[in-house]
Q: What sequence folds into this?
């Protein structure tokens, strides 16, 4: 492959991998600090809202937030819960940059090794 075709191909494959990693990062889940209302039978008279820390998914930024009353409680789903697209795009960009940096580093190391091998033969 020539350099002209391999660079866009590499960037495209890195983007697909970054998107996949970002979606899979929804399995990295945490709670809070925001509180969500999970019912209304709390308090001494059982007439106040019940609040729990919100369940979130995504890494490094949480982009999927559990929506109580709409989805299965304490379980994240792309079709039912709140999706924050800006956080998802930032996650994809972070993964893409990390993948491109790794590709650049590997290319640099292999070029250095080839250069060293050529100097040894001379």
A:
């Amino acid at each position: 492959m020539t350099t002209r075709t391999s660079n866009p191909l590499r960037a495209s494959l890195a983007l697909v991998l970054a998107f996949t990693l970002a979606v899979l990062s929804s399995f990295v889940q945490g709670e809070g600090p925001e509180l969500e209302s999970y019912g209304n039978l709390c308090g001494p008279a059982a007439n106040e809202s019940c609040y729990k820390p919100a369940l979130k998914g995504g890494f490094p930024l949480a982009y999927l937030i559990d929506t109580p009353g709409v989805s299965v409680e304490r379980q994240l789903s792309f079709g039912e819960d709140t999706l924050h697209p800006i956080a998802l795009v930032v996650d994809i960009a972070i993964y893409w940059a990390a993948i491109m940096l790794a590709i650049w580093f590997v290319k640099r190391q292999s070029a250095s090794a080839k250069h060293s091998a050529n100097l040894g033969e001379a």
Q: What stands out?
A: The chain has one domain: 3-121. The radius of gyration is 23 Å. Residues 3-121 form one domain.
